[in-house]
Amino acid sequence: MSAEKIKKLIRENDQLGNLLGVNLTEVSEGRAYAELKIEKQHLNAAGVAHGASIFALADIALAAASNSYGNVALLTNGNIQVFHATQLGDTLIAKAKEVSASRRLAHYRIKVTNSVGDQIAVYNATVYKTSAPLPDGE
C-alpha cells in the first residue's frame, strides 16, 4: 500500500488522532513521522502536555509505520518514557522506525522531540503482524 494511501486511511479512520489534531507528515515502509501542536486541550492539571497526548502521538506514528506494509499490525506491548515536560504551543514530532521484524512480530522505536530537537520521550513497541490486508479505503 502506498504511503499516501496509509496517510489517507489513518487520517479518515483514526478518530482519536483526528480529535487530538495529529498530522502524519511522512510514511514509508517501516517508518513514519507524525506531528502534534500542543494546545490547551492537550494539557494536564499541572499545565503541561498530558502523557496520554504524547503516548497517542507516538502510537499513531507507530500505527502508520507498522501498517505500511499493507497488512493489519496490532500493538501487543508498548512502553513510553517521558524525559521533559512540554508546554502550550510546542510542536511535538514523533519519528517511528522499525528496529527488527520476524514473520509475526515487529519491534519499533518511536522518538518524540520538540521543534528545536530536544528529546521529549521514547516509545518502544511490539506489534503483531496479521495476514489481513488493510482496508483499501476507496
From TrEMBL:
Keywords: Hydrolase. GO terms for molecular function: acyl-CoA hydrolase activity. It holds the Pfam family 4HBT. Residues 47-119 form the Thioesterase domain. InterPro entries: Acyl-CoA_thioesterase_PaaI, HotDog_dom_sf, PAAI_dom, Thioestr_dom. This is Acyl-coenzyme A thioesterase PaaI. It comes from Pontiella desulfatans.
